[in-house]
Write the structure tokens for this entry.
Amino acid sequence: MGVLSLIARVQDIQRLRQILKVFAKYGYGHVIERMGLQSSRLLGVILPQPSIKSPSDPEQLRRAFEELGPTFVKLGQVLSTRPDLIPHTYIEEFSKLQDKVSPFPLEEARETFEKELGYSFEEAFLEFDSTPIASASLSQVYRATLKDGTRVAVKIQRPGIKPLIKSDIDLLYILARIAETSIPELKLYNPVKIIREFERAIEKELDFTIEAANAERFRRNFYSSSDICFPKVHDRFSSKRILTMDFIDGVKITEAPLSGYDPRELARCGLRAVIQMIFRDGFFHADPHPGNVVVTKDGRLAYLDLGLVGRVSEATRDKMLMLLLAIIREDFEEVTRIFYKIGIKEDRVDMEEFRSDVVDICERHFGKPLKFIELGTFIKDLLEGALRHRIRIPHEYALMCKALITMEGVGKKLDPDLNIFKEAYPYLTDIFKKRYSLNRLSKDLVTAFVTVSQLLQEIPPQLKETINSIERGGVKTNDIPEHKKVFTLERIVNRVIIAFLTCLCIAVSIILFVLSKSLWMVSFSVVWLLAGFLLGIWLIISILKSRNF
């Protein structure tokens, strides 16, 4: 196998043998055979006899990941945020992945702290608890008290973890390339790209300054909230491998009702927080599972473990917002249109079949009483239906879906009658109205006019270059005067721009009319409609006068 020749170090060969043997042990020998890795001169014999294909078992794969250690545990955790890539049963199983590692010695933690910051524990802290309160594959956390009496949590990166993970990722790239060429059905999922995304995610997680920046951004976004809080970062005692934050004392959100907190209010508060993160801020906690959300003594929700976050542009938020509102209104034709627009097409799509499948999935789910409708199973069916048509949704949409699905799961544990669609609707419509407020529309219009103005300035020289290119390619336009060429093409472009502005005016008019709460807003919408009408009339007259139609 040519790709295997890229492995140079003996320890990498031994590690690859270990990886393959563990997968074979947990029932994935048939996959190893399809990849042609059951035996080779470099690796030796992995499978002593042909493997019998057993049904795919998510639990067995999770156990294999846990046995293989930190890199694979993290890979599974990252995959659990990708409902667009793997089946729902695997997502549920990967969400249970746990780091089974022994704590590293206190002396190693002390050495890392001093090397990174130049302080000893005694110089930095009034007290430092030598027993870690949490130990994971990448780091472990200690409780301490600063000199001013502030209680903090100190996260210290596990020594030697970076080279170990880099070595495993190099091997994963090799396995992904082999899998992509030897198992055709995997091409749709692009294994090499998955490993590349995982590599970027793990690099960010190993740089604690990124988590510190995430925490500060969340604190700014929720500065005025009385229900939600995030730990404060202490920059003086933080670096790429050390993170010191306020210690937040609380109980897991799913256990809070046992302490007297209202489960219904907790569920709705968590849902509001995720909706604000995604649709207002475009910056959200990508994995808000119960272990990452605690309830403080004063009843606020505190979000922890802020390394894995999602970022979405305003345009992406708008599409997702419109999709969810269409789902809630049960406008299944609109759901089909938006979902198709969002998706990445790997092949030609039979639009009628796709529409039929999406509508069928929607009707199957929304023909039930509200309390039985679940966003998680609906999104799962929608994504699996899209994959049948070789349509994938972009990573950022998958992360948004995962965050909403996770929060729905937490909410259902707190309040079994919770319906995420019913609860989310008022918040989503409020965000929609703010998104399409007069202030936002004014900004959009200014942007549109600036863009059109720039187009008008840029197009003439571009058109001239296009004409020159045509002539260089053998199509002669010498019989047409130069000024006429440019004039004709400019006139065409101007008409396109006028058509665009006409549509823009009509769209603004409709939005203003829908959102109108007073007579002056209705009047304003009529003005925009009239402007669009006049532009349209001008366009029609200019076309008729030119006789080129």
The chain is about 60% helix and 10% strand. The mean pLDDT is 80. The two ends are 62 Å apart (CA to CA). The longest strand covers residues 139-146.
